[in-house]
Design brief:
heterodimer, A: 195 residues, mainly alpha, Arc Repressor Mutant, subunit A, 3 domains, globular, B: 111 residues, 2 domains, 5 helices, 79% helix
Chain lengths: 195, 111
């Protein structure tokens, strides 16, 4: 488990603590421990939110709401899933809440959770904003999310299945499809760190 | 399920270093012998490069406000830390006693 360095004037050095110690301390109200615990995940959480949401202001709001939910939920975190999986799951729910609020007047249009997270208009707009390259463009929304969770967040198949709410077998078969599509695309483009 | 199929299912976790010690050794052993699975791993590595290109670090102004909604628990934390200092004294005492015990044992053995 990772341990990082930083000394505190009060003798408390959260950055030399293990993840489980930080979780316990943060769960007991330690804000400093909480910040150290979450700082290592900020880039991933930010990328996940900004891949679903258009404006910097919305990203900032959802990030703050996510942090608050993690903070409030720490006492009930039971280690059933890895801490990272748990946090990403909360982030996903906060993104969905954002869309629920935004489309509350058109609830019939976006009543299902999956629909909320995969609104075509938003997805295409955000993708063009983020300048996602042509290779990724061959993937559908769920496949791009699986790529993010598998390769950026480095989750296992069961963890991805837990977050997306689909069977592990389905995640595996979607991964086969992702590999087949991207292999073809990458060979065509001949780039992206051929190994 | 043949060995290649079994290892193929482990490749993502192998690449992400999420396998247990034994699984890791078994996968590495198979990969050393199997060209097909090495190619499969190469595809995953290329996708990982591609995925990492799409990630940008959090802008400083957004990172700076990330914890703004977390209530300030400075008072509570300080109290908890003060309490911790008292327990630390017991830890030091315990460590010192262990050293004394160890030295005594060595001394007895030397007699």
């Amino acid at each position: 488990m990772k341990a990082v360095k930083r000394g505190g004037a009060d003798g408390f050095s959260p950055e030399s603590c293990t993840e489980s110690t930080l979780i316990r301390k943060a769960g007991n109200g330690g804000k400093e421990a909480f910040e150290v615990l979450m700082k290592g995940l900020l880039d991933i959480i930010y990328s996940y939110i900004s891949s679903h949401v258009g404006t910097a202001e919305d990203v900032k709001d959802i990030l703050q709401e996510t942090m608050l939910s993690v903070w409030n939920g720490l006492k009930s975190y039971d280690n059933r899933s890895s801490f990272k999986t748990w946090v990403i799951g909360i982030t996903r729910r906060k993104i969905a809440d954002h869309y629920r609020m935004r489309y509350r007047d058109a609830a019939d249009r976006l009543s299902e959770f999956e629909d909320i997270l995969s609104s075509d208009d938003d997805f295409e707009r955000i993708n063009s904003r983020n300048d996602i390259n042509a290779a990724m463009a061959v993937l559908d929304k769920t496949e791009r999310e699986i790529v993010f969770l598998a390769f950026n967040v480095q989750l296992t198949y069961p963890e991805i299945s837990e977050i997306l709410g689909i069977p592990t077998g389905t995640v595996k078969s979607r991964m086969s499809s992702i590999k087949a599509k991207l292999r073809k695309q990458l060979d065509k483009e001949g780039g992206y760190g051929r190994v | 399920m043949d060995e290649c199929e079994r290892v193929s299912e482990l490749l993502l976790d192998y690449m992400n270093r999420r396998l247990s010690g034994n699984e890791n050794i078994a996968a590495a052993k198979h990969l050393a012998e199997c060209r097909r699975c090495r190619n499969e791993l190469a595809v995953l590595l290329r996708i990982r490069n591609l995925a990492h290109e799409g990630i940008s670090p959090i802008p400083q102004d957004i990172a700076d406000t990330a914890f703004d909604k977390i209530p300030d628990t400075k008072g509570t934390l300080a109290a908890a830390l003060n309490l911790r200092q008292y327990f630390k004294a017991f830890d030091y005492l315990h460590d010192a006693m262990s050293v004394v015990n160890h030295v005594m044992k060595l001394a007895q053995q030397a007699m």
